[in-house]
Amino acid sequence: VHALMLAVMFTGAGCGGISTHFNTATGGQETTVYSTDREQQIGAAVAAELEKEFRVLDDVAVNERVDRITERLAAVCDRKELVYITRVVEEKDLKGREPLVNAVSLPGGYIYLFKGLLEYVDSDEELAAVISHEIAHITARHSIKRLQASYGSLALLVAAVQTDPSLA
């Protein structure tokens, strides 16, 4: 039953098949259940949801600035098979709150910078440091690893409920 539950979870998640590869970001062999194509699909879906919550800035000069920096960094990163998409977003309604000074990366090459961050940094070099940090998360597949780890937790929860519901 437990093996069947794991099989159903992985099949239902749309996994691209288990594969082992050398991760240049971490310097080790790693096993993943998501292909790069599937990782990009997941990233696109999460990006669409994020863009419902935050307004994408349409300032041409700002977008050209972050695109130029991202392209230079992507040219020397370890996952050149990805197309890195960097967008600047801001909260739809601040209601007296301070703007967010943050950045986030999603699976498959998506990077979001909050407008407050761009107002905070003093130079393109500081902005490049933030973007390269986000590219490093993508290169190391941190989001995908967290997603895979959640399957293990879910499998343990299913096993615990079947053994003794109070364990859950």
Average predicted confidence as pLDDT = 84
Low-confidence stretches: 1-13
Number of helices: 6
Strand content: 15-25%
Principal-axes geometry comes out as: globular
Strand order in the largest sheet = 3-4-6-5
- Derived from helix and strand composition plus strand pairing, the structural class reads alpha+beta
Q: Give the termini distance in whole angstroms.
A: 17 Å
How many strand segments? 6
Largest sheet report: 4 strands, mixed
H-E string: HEEHEHEEEHHH
Question: What does the radius of gyration come to?
Answer: 19 Å
Q: Based on the structure, what is the oligomeric state of the protein chains? A: single chain
The amount of helix comes to 40-55%
Describe the overall structure.
The protein is α+β, with helices and mostly antiparallel strands and 168 residues long. 52% of the residues lie in helices and 17% in strands. It contains 6 helices and 6 strands; from the N terminus they run αββαβαβββααα. The chain has helices spanning 2-12, 36-53, 60-74, 115-120, 124-139, 142-163, and strands at 19-23, 28-32, 54-56, 85-91, 103-106, 110-114. The strands form 2 sheets. Strands 3-4-6-5 form a 4-stranded mixed beta sheet, sandwiched between helices. A two-stranded antiparallel ribbon has the order 1-2. α1 packs antiparallel against α6 (142-163).
Describe the protein's topology.
Blueprint: H1 2-12, E1 19-23, E2 28-32, H2 36-53, E3 54-56, H3 60-74, E4 85-91, E5 103-106, E6 110-114, H4 115-120, H5 124-139, H6 142-163
Parallel strand pairs: 4-6
Antiparallel strand pairs: 1-2, 3-4, 5-6
